[in-house]
Design a protein that fits this description.
302 residues; alpha/beta; Arc Repressor Mutant, subunit A; D-Maltodextrin-Binding Protein, domain 2; 3 domains; two-stranded antiparallel sheet; 39% helix
Length: 302
């Protein structure tokens, strides 16, 4: 069988790829300007060609089978390279990539790796913005529009490309001279320490309490701060017990600035994702960046 005979028609491949991205036949049809029945027929034709099921249609919402996920993952870099190939013939500005990311993620993870990130992006310079809202990807004002954002959520953002970067773990931490001999199980006497509370995402103390890992009353008082960076600094200076977001805060422990408190940690439902528009002129570079960041997070987690 020749190579051309082993490769199915491009219309079938595009129908499958867009359906996998959009997660519905209707949305894929709208993106490709055809009818949903056409998309369904072309996906079914590809399944017959490969003699495998690519989507599980047993429930109301379709989802990729293991084989379908494997094919979709293999096609992502292929379509990204096609985007690069055709963009070179279009007047698409590609001198810089604007990435929205919270200051905590930027300072604790991106900036220490900036030289390597620049190598991944090659000729494209990276501009960081503290705004990581999805709306910024579609802003009508060019000065406000971002190419991608790094954000946390329990599931992918619908209507966008999503690359999962890492799971998130919350851990109780204290200063290096603190005592970890005091237990904080429910019913124990309150230790003479304060808890450091962040006025921000994750609501970590409540999650530990809901998980049955501590009683809220086991700390005598609390200190409120505005960011996780401030919380880590407060912990480092011995002001109390705080919550570290891992793997982002891992360097603080690697450098012996803080340590685990009573070895208590929980994995939460949220993940960090790299999110960008499907039609982004930087799609190929964002795939490379997302894959590289995923590997870096995996190293930091190990």
């Amino acid at each position: 069988m020749s190579v051309s005979e082993r490769i199915p028609p491009m219309t079938w491949i595009r129908a499958f790829f867009e359906t996998a991205r959009q997660q519905t036949f209707k949305a894929a049809a709208a993106a490709l300007h055809v009818s949903p029945s056409t998309i369904s027929h072309e996906v079914r034709s590809l399944e017959n060609f490969l003699s495998i099921l690519l989507f599980d249609r047993s429930k109301r919402k379709i989802r990729l089978t293991d084989e379908g996920q494997q094919l979709y993952s293999s096609l992502q870099p292929v379509f990204a390279q096609l985007d690069v190939a055709f963009n070179q013939f279009q007047n698409v500005p590609n001198s810089s990539l604007r990435l929205g990311v919270l200051a905590f993620v930027s300072s604790e993870f991106l900036l220490p790796r900036m030289q390597n990130i620049e190598k991944v992006l090659d000729e494209i310079s990276l501009e960081l913005s503290p705004n990581n809202q999805l709306e910024s990807l579609n802003s009508v004002k060019p000065d406000d529009r971002l190419d991608a954002v790094i954000r946390y959520s329990a599931s992918p953002s619908p209507g966008y490309e999503n690359i999962e970067l890492t799971k998130i773990k919350l851990a109780l931490v204290e200063c290096m001279t603190g005592s970890t001999s005091v237990k904080i199980q429910k019913g124990d006497s309150p230790p003479k320490q304060k808890r450091i509370v962040v006025d921000g995402p994750f609501n970590g103390w409540k999650r530990f309490q809901d998980a049955g890992l501590l009683n809220r009353d086991c700390f005598l008082s609390e200190v409120k701060v505005d960011t996780y960076i401030s919380a880590l600094r407060a912990v480092q200076h011995g002001l109390g017990v705080g919550i570290a977001v891992l793997p982002l805060s891992g360097s603080w422990m690697d450098e012996n600035r803080i340590k685990f408190y009573d070895q208590k940690a929980i994995v939460i439902a949220e993940r960090y994702w790299l999110v960008y528009r499907r039609e982004s002129p930087h799609a190929a570079k964002l795939v490379l960046l997302g894959n590289w960041l995923s590997k870096e997070f995996a190293v930091a987690t190990a």
